[in-house]
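From the shared-data thread, chain only:
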Amino acid sequence: MGKKGEKKHLKRKPAPGFWPISRKEFLWTVKPKPGPHPVSRCIPLLLVVREILNFAKTRREAKMIISSGKVEIDGKIQRKESFPVGLMDTLFIPEAEGLYRVLPSEKGLILHPIGKEEANFKLCRIEDKTFLKGGHMQLNLHDGRSILVRVKEPQKPEEDIYQTLDTLKVSIPNQEIIGHIRLAEGAPALIIGGKNVGKWGKIIAIEGKPGQRRRESLVTMEDKSGNRFQTTLDFVLVLGENQPQISLPEAS
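Structure, as tokens:
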């Protein structure tokens, strides 16, 4: 009989290139379990604790730290070493008093130190929306969350205010919508993929073509130094209306 389901193990060589692991020292590495982020856009929690934060020297030590409930992701304790940590997730280690947000960079994903107030929310991009029976709306976010928005008359423009690729400001761990940021020209945004990943600036122009998918529209952005660069709309995450609502690395 053939094998059923996907493999539970992952070799080091085919692992994502931005993972901070040696490719030739050992054969196997931890594989992220199915969850809020795909393998190509996440780092297993064990690697975060051992390789990035250097809180452990071996897998056994890192596993003990995680299983003892000393790590919180988005306000909830995670005890699985294979939990996928990805874009915009917040990480808190009470004993070390460390607060971090996962952000993109040229080298992949990084942990950016943040303050306590900023750790109470995260920014999530709307990937899709669905109208349910009863006229309510379900918003599907980039981190696997689904939020139900109850509306009286969804066909009215004033009720249907959420659009795909807009950003929601979500409280954690309550998962309540506390803000809505429209994707529009003039708004600050972060590039989350492509050759310009990790850069951020103001959206100067969004250019679409007839018959083209909206996500493939060309976006021109400008950073604080006046440098301009381009990407596609699919790689853009809007951060605020006039100023970013989260702190960002100086090098971005």
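Helices lie at 45-52, 59-67.
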